[in-house]
Amino acid sequence: MTKIAVVPGSFDPITFGHLDIIKRGASVFDEIHVVVLNNSSKKSLFTVEERMALISEVTVSLPNVHVDSFSGLLVEYAKSVNAHAIVRGLRAVSDFEYEMQITSMNRVLNEKIETFFIMTNNQYSFLSSSIVKEVAKYGGNISELVPKQVEVALKMKFGFK
């Protein structure tokens, strides 16, 4: 049986922290679906298509990673690709309470889908897409926070060369 997992997120933009979780998940599961969730409550810098393109570029060396988008219930997407697992990254204890609520609701919606938490690498524990965007907006150095393709895309969005 193929072990399929879903790694959901807004990925606006993808960071080295996200990539760390994706790579580690890809080493455990046969197939990983990185799913860009279209969250209407968040104002995104990049379109869903731009985020998917960036994720595809930075995961090209991971043959078992597939990039997709979805709006709706995550457990429904997971079911549609025959996934039995959701992989979520945790940066700090503060993430846990929110993630526990989401996981509990997902269990109510579909008890056959398990959630696995991966603690992020310590060097990325402070990292979020919001912080990256804020630093990039003012021309700060983000080369150690995001892959080169993302750095270039952010500079273009904010009018830097």
TrEMBL record:
<feature type="binding site">
    <location>
        <position position="42"/>
    </location>
    <ligand>
        <name>substrate</name>
    </ligand>
</feature>
<comment type="similarity">
    <text>Belongs to the bacterial CoaD family.</text>
</comment>
<comment type="subunit">
    <text>Homohexamer.</text>
</comment>
<keyword id="KW-0808">Transferase</keyword>
<feature type="binding site">
    <location>
        <position position="74"/>
    </location>
    <ligand>
        <name>substrate</name>
    </ligand>
</feature>
<feature type="binding site">
    <location>
        <position position="99"/>
    </location>
    <ligand>
        <name>ATP</name>
    </ligand>
</feature>
<dbReference type="InterPro" id="IPR001980">
    <property type="entry name" value="PPAT"/>
</dbReference>
<keyword id="KW-0547">Nucleotide-binding</keyword>
<dbReference type="GO" id="GO:0005737">
    <property type="term" value="C:cytoplasm"/>
</dbReference>
<comment type="function">
    <text>Reversibly transfers an adenylyl group from ATP to 4'-phosphopantetheine, yielding dephospho-CoA (dPCoA) and pyrophosphate.</text>
</comment>
<dbReference type="GO" id="GO:0015937">
    <property type="term" value="P:coenzyme A biosynthetic process"/>
</dbReference>
<keyword id="KW-0173">Coenzyme A biosynthesis</keyword>
<feature type="binding site">
    <location>
        <position position="88"/>
    </location>
    <ligand>
        <name>substrate</name>
    </ligand>
</feature>
<feature type="domain" description="Cytidyltransferase-like">
    <location>
        <begin position="7"/>
        <end position="134"/>
    </location>
</feature>
<feature type="binding site">
    <location>
        <begin position="124"/>
        <end position="130"/>
    </location>
    <ligand>
        <name>ATP</name>
    </ligand>
</feature>
<keyword id="KW-0963">Cytoplasm</keyword>
<keyword id="KW-0067">ATP-binding</keyword>
<feature type="binding site">
    <location>
        <begin position="10"/>
        <end position="11"/>
    </location>
    <ligand>
        <name>ATP</name>
    </ligand>
</feature>
<protein>
    <recommendedName>
        <fullName>Phosphopantetheine adenylyltransferase</fullName>
        <ecNumber>2.7.7.3</ecNumber>
    </recommendedName>
</protein>
<comment type="pathway">
    <text>Cofactor biosynthesis; coenzyme A biosynthesis; CoA from (R)-pantothenate: step 4/5.</text>
</comment>
<dbReference type="InterPro" id="IPR004821">
    <property type="entry name" value="Cyt_trans-like"/>
</dbReference>
<dbReference type="GO" id="GO:0005524">
    <property type="term" value="F:ATP binding"/>
</dbReference>
<feature type="binding site">
    <location>
        <position position="18"/>
    </location>
    <ligand>
        <name>ATP</name>
    </ligand>
</feature>
<feature type="site" description="Transition state stabilizer">
    <location>
        <position position="18"/>
    </location>
</feature>
<feature type="binding site">
    <location>
        <begin position="89"/>
        <end position="91"/>
    </location>
    <ligand>
        <name>ATP</name>
    </ligand>
</feature>
<dbReference type="InterPro" id="IPR014729">
    <property type="entry name" value="Rossmann-like_a/b/a_fold"/>
</dbReference>
<dbReference type="Pfam" id="PF01467">
    <property type="entry name" value="CTP_transf_like"/>
</dbReference>
<keyword id="KW-0548">Nucleotidyltransferase</keyword>
<dbReference type="GO" id="GO:0004595">
    <property type="term" value="F:pantetheine-phosphate adenylyltransferase activity"/>
</dbReference>
<keyword id="KW-0460">Magnesium</keyword>
<feature type="binding site">
    <location>
        <position position="10"/>
    </location>
    <ligand>
        <name>substrate</name>
    </ligand>
</feature>
